[in-house]
Amino acid sequence: MILTGGGMLRPRKMKHLELTVLSRDIEAVIEFLGRGGYMHFTHDDEKFRSIPGNESVSKTDDKVLKLTRENLEKLKTACAYLGIAIPAEPLADSHLPGTAEEELTKTITAAVSALSGRENELIREKARIGEALNETKAFAGLDAPFSDLDQLSYLTLRVGRLDPRQQADIKQNLSGRAVIIPLDGDRVMAASSRKGRFALDSELKKSNFIPINIPEGFKGVPAELISGFAARLENTEDELRGILEKKKEYCRDYGNNLQSLIASYIMAGIMNELKAAAISTENFYLLSGWTPAGLVSEMAAGLEKITGGSIAIRSCNPDEIESVSSGSVKVPVSLKHRGVVKGFESVIFSYGVPLYGAIDPTIFVTIFFTLMFGIMFGDIGQGLVLLLLGILTGKKGPAFMARFRKFSVPLIAVGTASMVMGFLEGSIFTNDKLLIGVTRAITGFLTGHPADKILVLMPMAEMGGSVTKLFYFFGFTIGIGIILNSIGLILNMVNLAAHKDYVNLFFSKTGIAGSLFFWYAISLGVRAVIGIINPLWPFGIFWYDKAALIIPIVFILFGPTVWRLAFGTRPVLAEGLMVFVMESFVEVLETISNYFSNTVSFLRVGAFALSHAVLSYIIFSLSGQLMAASGGTLIAGIIMVFGNSVIIVLEGMIVAIQVMRLQYYEFFGKFFTETGVEFKPFRFRKGVEI
């Protein structure tokens, strides 16, 4: 059985839809669904893959998808070359690319590609000329015949005459292998690496190159060679600077178009991927998936409008689907919250996804996360810092804080709670003197007995505290643990009843038997504390107390076996008698130890609250002592700033981890025995609320 109610305490009711769409309308339908984020698609049902014609259609879609990806990569390459930011998703006004967009893509990418190719060519040429120039300069003052330089340098040098009309051709033919330097008139000097000398001589011969004999005994390197290299290097650098200006011009002319085209092709890629995965024939596509029940009418009306009524929509409840009823397929879960509660959904999903139809624990997580954090991190000033961080990371905060937006609501909540606790403790940035006047006025008005602080954690008489008050505070934190554990047990029992898992409902350690054991053990603990405080109510364990503790344990141990025996489930003892005895013994120990540790674990809330108060006291006392010393004002201020920063960052992280641990292990462990599937609707842009 699957409960399908929606609301604060349950995920939204879901419907399974099958859309039969004509091929002519498929892109309009997908665009509508992608902009609205209506459906969580499922296209893994192999039985539909045998539809005749489906394979050929998929191949066609694959070709379109391949072309889209190729254009997208070309556009991204152009953006990267020009230094233009590349969109990660379609823009709000993006549309599918058509013929005009394809032509514009060809024009822009061809222009940018040509510019990039020319720049790379010039960079390589600059490197070659620079190396040749440096090498030539190194031998310029060498007292050796020019004819011997071939043997001393990596260069192969050729000096001669070449028809100016052929110089451009030979430069192109030798591109990347040699450098041709015009000297004057028809004279040129050609230089290449030793490995490239054969190619150089071959090309020079084809071009009717006439060598010039260097005068016998001429030493060093001709000045024309050095000046020629230098001039060519300067020309290359000038052309590279021109390329840089051209890139800036392209950024201005093509920037917006490139971003718009990329966004459009991303949108087309998403659409074509869905089309390629969808069940289809030559004439229609079949789209199937899950939609929140509350959105079905709205979605159907929109689809009817854009298709002119030429669409078939089949809707059914989850319990009408055999694979869901058998448990082989899980219904996606969509939680519906607003405001503060929605901000804590990430705490749930970081642990797991609740099963569809199970109780949604987000409201309880919101309350207890905020409460426990505030107790452990009580300070008005430090809480205000967290509150401001929450505001800055919100929707109206600066753009560079947008990546932390999911933390905005939790930060605002815990910051506010910390400020409330800080007011009770009378602490502002560790200073416990500033609020004394206000606290005295309030306590005097309410009780007639003015007090410096409403709540004192430090067990020091001079501060108005005591060990007894501290024990009361620790008892309060254990009370929070008892309440949270009890809520977890109740949620688990409701979920088990909803899914008709009666064996675990009645006999598991987190079902009725285990809950009764826990609650009665707590009542004994309360009676013991009362007996210690008030001698008129002495504590004692009677026969009915023993029975109330033993009977639930017996049900946990033997209940499942008796159930299988009564309803004919075989084998009764799946692993044999010895294994059953050993497992029973371990089960008893685990039940008792788990409930004890789950309850005592909440002492850490009081412990961290006390450590926070102690650390604040140390920082404030140390800065106060330094303040009285000569020139100590600056040092005291530095200590206050540094100390508060350490508390906010380091202790804030530790407290957050402890709260998460208490939620995960003590609370979620009671009912989060199986995880579901998160509702992830198909949409072009992220951040769309459904």
Any overview of this molecule?
- The structure is a single chain.
- The chain is α+β, with helices and mostly antiparallel strands and 690 residues long.
- The protein is 61% helix and 8% strand.
- It is built from 22 helices and eleven strands.
- It has helices at residues 26-36, 54-82, 99-138, 149-152, 164-173, 197-206, 223-277, 296-307, 322-326, 339-343, 345-351, 362-376, 380-392, 408-425, 436-447, 467-498, 502-507, 512-533, 543-566, 577-600, 603-628, 632-671; strands at 14-22, 40-41, 155-161, 178-182, 187-193, 210-211, 279-280, 284-292, 311-316, 332-333, 677-678.
- Strands 1, 2, 7, 8 and 9 form a five-stranded antiparallel β-sheet that branches.
- A hairpin with a 4-residue loop joins strand 4 and strand 5.
- Helix 1 (26-36) runs antiparallel to helix 8 (296-307) and helix 13 (380-392) runs antiparallel to helix 14 (408-425).
- The radius of gyration is 39 Å and the shape is extended.
- The two termini are 26 Å apart.
